[in-house]
Specification:
- By secondary structure, the protein is α+β, with helices and mostly antiparallel strands.
- The chain contains 2 helices and 10 strands.
- The strands form 2 sheets. A 6-stranded mixed beta sheet has the order 1-2-10-5-8-7, with helices on one face. A 4-stranded antiparallel beta sheet has the order 3-4-9-6, with no helix packed on it.
């Protein structure tokens, strides 16, 4: 009898987990564009871990970024949005291989600024975000020229965030 209850409990837990994952799938599918590449990159066992100020490896396209308390960091380019108390900020640099539309995708809610001239931030060409999609919360597209870019993250609730920079499909 005890074994039967244990098996029943495990079965119900498995159904509950499966149902929760199934409920998350519609949120992921309802982004304005596919985020499948980011989901794969963010789930990779060898996802690069970067400190704020590091260069995003061009071959990786994604990394786990360690942010700093907003009160302790000066971002290279002033953000369009002021820092909020008790949030985290940081930045990475990247080399854009060819001009085109690129998407910056985050695992959690935060503000994204991108600069290519070191003085001003670029206006996004499109954005999409969904609550309830595991590991991906927001994706913003920018028209980028070939060359260096600075990606700034601010207003994050936690000191760790996954970030992806991929050419739009």
């Amino acid at each position: 009898m005890i074994i039967s209850r244990a098996i029943l409990a495990v079965g119900l837990a498995a159904i509950s987990i499966s149902s929760a994952k199934a409920a998350d799938a519609p949120a992921c599918a309802s982004f304005a564009w596919s985020i499948a590449r980011e989901q794969t990159a963010f789930a990779a066992p060898k996802l690069s871990a970067l400190a704020s100020g590091s260069a995003l490896p061009s071959e990786a396209g994604a990394a786990q970024l360690t942010l700093k308390p907003a009160s302790e960091i000066a971002l290279p380019v002033p953000s369009e949005r002021p820092a909020k108390p008790d949030t985290f900020s940081g930045f990475v640099t990247a080399t854009v291989p060819a001009a085109g539309t690129y998407q910056v995708t985050l695992s959690d809610e935060a503000w994204i600024d991108v600069s290519q001239d070191g003085r001003s931030t670029l206006k996004p060409t499109a954005h999409s975000g969904k609550v309830g999609c595991p590991d991906v919360r927001k994706s913003v597209r920018f028209a980028l020229n070939a060359g260096p870019a600075t990606i700034e993250i601010s207003r994050a609730a936690r000191p760790q965030i996954k970030l992806g920079l991929l050419k739009a499909e």
